[in-house]
């Protein structure tokens, strides 16, 4: 009987386990000290139960050990849930979405207190960044990536080599891995951040073969990061805007969903050239991105119409083109973007309206995904259902299939959705940016 | 008619019929001395025009059309269609009707009646009673089909609040086990209310915002919708967002079942989203809207008949291609322009 319970329970606790191993180490230490005493008592009771079951059921000793560790982890988890006072929704995730990660909210105070005790947790710039991710102050794939790289530069400047290793590159590789893994506990890492991580890895490999000392390595690495931002994000966006301006004639009616860095700059640029557009902005009140875009456009003196996603059917007959930003483009041609994009794409294909995606090439990914539920992120809703007569569900991302996408506007040109794989292959040859200059000792 | 009120459309239909009853019994009723059936019919049409709350109010004219149709049917049964020249003592008429309406709602009593009271007592009032009864019991008739369309452990999708769907699910719960996903529109709280009402009855309910519709649709087996008006070509008018859901459902080959009482049948035709629609105040959508950032909000969504699999009404089950038959039974062609 207890065996069956153990087999069922580990499945429920999986997201919690990943989370507990890597997250706030200090919190765990403090609570484990308190829990250890009680844990011992409990494990004694459980081992007694185990022995009696063994006698009755004649089990393998290995299976028993696994069950013991599971039960101990359960005991720890139980304690931590009670002490952390986390949202109760974590325990009641529906079966069909129990595989998706749920992130617990951290308050800045708890993280700062942790940092004072144990200086080996995240650097303060990353902690601030992660809190911003959680609050929703820093959303949008480009924004998050750029902020991450800025925080990383700050970290590089403050980083001091431990005495044991002489080589900056090797030590930093490990540090980078640690940081990346810790950050995954706050929000999932998006594709742009993964590409930049791979790029920095490549740089560090090159650095390892040279003989620069610590300061010069740091300076060179920071320069490389700047170059990455400059060429892959800023210069790319200029090229994309140039490409897109050829596509969209003056006076067309466009529909935009949520807020994309590229599309925002494109519209502002278009109006600065003196041309006119009719703009409909579809708002997503849950994330508030549509209204942010509208405010930003208003500051630039551009007027637009605001509409909700459920009311979109009314104006679809009047719209010429639909423009959408991307979080990443997948190898099978699918688009990962803000939730609701797929619905818009479906409606667009029914009404035969061109559906354009604006995406820089650093967001191209080698993964493939078919439907929105196999991997996604659950967004924490601000209002929790008090009586809990129903479970609420709110996703962050959406998969739009390649047959709905008419064209992707990138800095390498205008490509169909199916060519993503070819573009990735090309970039792999060139270290994701271009050939990286090998640093020399005399460079400053 | 505000779409923001969580009241069934039934409410306005019922109230208007009760108002008709009250009008007929009141002393201020402006009926000519020798009232015939046609006079009553004209009177009822005028009353519906007065009570109607705008060109997009379908429910009040529908119910009055139904009353007129029942009057016609009853009078053709009794052969009383062309009766004239009966004495009409108006005060007696008023007294007897007041006495009757104060007793009970059901049958007509043959108390003291003068000659022309017969028309009113034998035809008009019973007609009104019949229509009222149809309105009140429509849910029970629909629920007879409750378990015939579901299999075990299905996942159903519903959108915003609908009392018809609520009753249907509660009666289906007795024989089937299923899971419900409620889609919530962005501005209104009706979705949450629906989820709590369903959850009170121990149903497995999930609430999602409207934007997640595509992600969720993969998991859904059937869609159940309430409706605001069923049009004569088989299309329907409903809360904004329904068109998007129906398009998605067709993509995923999910059947769309529409539940409604027959009082929603509207003998009109629509072509696109703008035929029967109204823009709502921008401030309701977004309180920050101004001239530069105008918010657009609409009242209805038109869904063409190709997206719907089945209509379940209290008069039976129909496909969109065959629901016109119900119109010819339910209404008369002469009354379509009320």
From TrEMBL, chain A:
Superkingdom classification of source: Eukaryota
Biased composition (Basic and acidic residues): 14-52
Low complexity composition bias: residue spans: 1-12, 53-76
Region (Disordered): 1-76
Signal peptide bounds: none
Keyword set includes Nuclease: no
UniProt name for this protein: Translation initiation factor eIF-2B subunit delta
From TrEMBL, chain B:
Highest taxon above the source species: Eukaryota
Keyword rRNA-binding: no
Keywords: Cytoplasm, Initiation factor, Protein biosynthesis
Keyword Cytoplasm: yes
GO cellular component: eukaryotic translation initiation factor 2B complex
One GO MF term attached to the UniProt entry: guanyl-nucleotide exchange factor activity
A matching Pfam family: IF-2B
InterPro entries reported for this sequence: eIF2B_beta_subunit (IPR051855), IF-2B-related (IPR000649)
Chain segments annotated as coiled-coil in the UniProt record: none
Similarity remark: Belongs to the eIF-2B alpha/beta/delta subunits family.
Name of this chain's protein: Translation initiation factor eIF-2B subunit beta
């Amino acid at each position: 009987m207890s065996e069956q319970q153990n087999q069922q329970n580990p499945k429920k606790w999986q997201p919690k386990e990943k989370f507990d191993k890597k997250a706030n180490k200090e919190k765990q230490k403090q609570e484990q000290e308190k829990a250890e005493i009680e844990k011992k008592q409990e494990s004694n009771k459980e081992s007694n139960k185990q022995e009696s079951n063994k006698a009755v059921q004649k089990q393998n000793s290995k299976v028993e050990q696994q069950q013991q560790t599971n039960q101990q982890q359960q005991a720890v988890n139980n304690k931590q849930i009670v002490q952390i006072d986390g949202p109760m929704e974590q325990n009641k995730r529906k079966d069909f979405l129990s595989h998706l990660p749920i992130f617990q909210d951290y308050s800045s105070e708890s993280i700062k207190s942790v940092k004072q005790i144990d200086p080996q947790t995240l650097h303060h710039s990353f902690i601030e960044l992660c809190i911003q991710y959680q609050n929703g102050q820093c959303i949008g794939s480009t924004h998050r990536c750029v902020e991450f790289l800025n925080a990383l530069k700050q970290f590089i400047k403050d980083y001091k080599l431990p005495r044991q290793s002489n080589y900056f590159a090797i030590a930093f590789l490990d540090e980078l891995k640690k940081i990346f893994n810790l950050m995954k506990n706050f929000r999932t890492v998006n594709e742009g951040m993964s590409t930049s991580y791979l790029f920095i890895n490549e740089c560090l490999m090159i650095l390892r073969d040279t003989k620069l000392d610590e300061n010069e390595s740091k300076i060179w690495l920071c320069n490389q990061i700047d170059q990455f931002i400059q060429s892959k994000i800023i210069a790319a966006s200029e090229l994309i805007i140039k490409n897109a301006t050829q596509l969209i004639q003056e006076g067309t009616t466009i529909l935009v969903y949520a807020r994309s860095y590229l599309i925002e700059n494109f519209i502002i640029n278009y109006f600065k050239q003196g041309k006119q557009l009719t703009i409909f902005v579809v708002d997503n009140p849950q994330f508030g991105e549509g209204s942010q875009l509208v405010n930003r456009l208003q500051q630039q003196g551009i007027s637009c119409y605001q509409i909700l996603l459920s009311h979109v059917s009314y104006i679809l007959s009047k719209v010429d083109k639909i423009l959408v930003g991307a979080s990443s483009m997948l190898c099978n041609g699918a688009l990962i973007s803000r939730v609701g994009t797929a619905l818009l794409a479906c409606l667009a294909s029914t009404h035969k309206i061109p559906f354009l995606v604006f995406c820089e090439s650093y967001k191209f990914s080698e993964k493939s995904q078919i439907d929105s539920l196999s991997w996604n992120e659950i967004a924490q809703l601000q209002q929790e259902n008090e009586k809990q007569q129903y479970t609420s569900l709110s996703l962050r991302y959406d998969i739009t299939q390649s047959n709905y996408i008419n064209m992707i506007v990138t800095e390498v040109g205008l490509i169909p959705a199916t060519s993503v794989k070819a573009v990735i292959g090309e970039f792999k040859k060139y270290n994701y940016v271009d050939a990286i200059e090998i640093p020399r000792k005399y460079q400053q | 008619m505000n779409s923001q009120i969580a009241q069934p459309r039934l409410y306005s239909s019922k109230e208007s019929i009760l108002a008709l009853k009250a009008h007929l019994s009141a002393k201020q009723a402006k009926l000519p001395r020798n009232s015939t059936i046609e006079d009553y019919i004209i009177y009822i049409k005028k009353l519906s025009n007065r009570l109607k709350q705008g060109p997009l109010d379908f429910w009040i004219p529908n119910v009055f059309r139904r009353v007129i149709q029942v009057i016609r049917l009853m009078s053709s049964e009794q052969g009383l269609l062309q009766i004239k020249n009966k004495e009409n003592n108006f005060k007696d008429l008023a007294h007897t009707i007041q006495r009757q309406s104060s007793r009970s709602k059901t049958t007509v009593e043959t108390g003291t009646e003068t000659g022309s009271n017969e028309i009113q007592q034998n035809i008009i009032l019973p007609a009104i009673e019949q229509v009222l009864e149809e309105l009140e019991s429509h849910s029970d008739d629909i629920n007879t089909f409750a378990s015939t369309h579901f299999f075990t452990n299905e996942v159903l999708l519903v959108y915003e609040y609908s009392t018809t769907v609520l009753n249907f699910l509660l009666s289906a719960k007795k024989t089937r086990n299923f899971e419900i996903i409620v889609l919530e529109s962005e501005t209104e709280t009706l979705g949450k209310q629906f989820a709590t009402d369903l959850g009170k009855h121990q149903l497995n309910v999930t609430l999602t915002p409207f934007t997640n519709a595509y992600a969720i649709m993969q998991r859904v087996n059937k869609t159940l919708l309430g409706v605001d008006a069923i049009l004569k070509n088989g299309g329907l008018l409903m809360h904004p967002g329904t068109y998007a859901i129906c398009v998605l459902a067709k993509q995923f080959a999910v059947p769309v079942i529409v539940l409604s009482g027959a009082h929603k049948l509207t003998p009109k035709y629509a072509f696109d989203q703008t035929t029967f629609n109204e823009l709502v105040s921008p401030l309701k959508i977004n309180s920050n809207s101004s001239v530069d950032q105008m918010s657009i909000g609409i009242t209805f969504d038109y869904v063409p008949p190709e997206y719907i699999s089945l209509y379940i009404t209290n008069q039976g089950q129909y496909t969109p291609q065959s629901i016109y038959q119900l119109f010819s039974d339910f209404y008369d062609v002469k009354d379509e322009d009320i």
